[in-house]
Prior knowledge:
This protein has one helix and no strands. By secondary structure, it is mainly α.
Amino acid sequence: MAYSQVAVVVGGIAHVPVLIGLAKFFDGQSAKNYKAGQAIREQQEAKVKAEEEARARAQAAEQEAKLKAAAQAKAEADAKAKAQAKNKKEADGKTGGKSK
């Protein structure tokens, strides 16, 4: 039994929406997978960035603490040197300007 040309064309045209529907379905599935993968990558990148920022803040705080400690030590050393100079000056004043 042979099909007429009209029947073949109508059958082909009738299947076009089915093929389009299948193509859209598979496209949607692959798009969902792609978007899910992108979301996971973005979360990982955000986590790494947050960790790097936290590490940088910690290093900056540590550096600041070291500088503050050094400044305090210098101030204490200067105060001690001034006190020693003052004591030496007072001692020289008591002995008549003669130092040992």
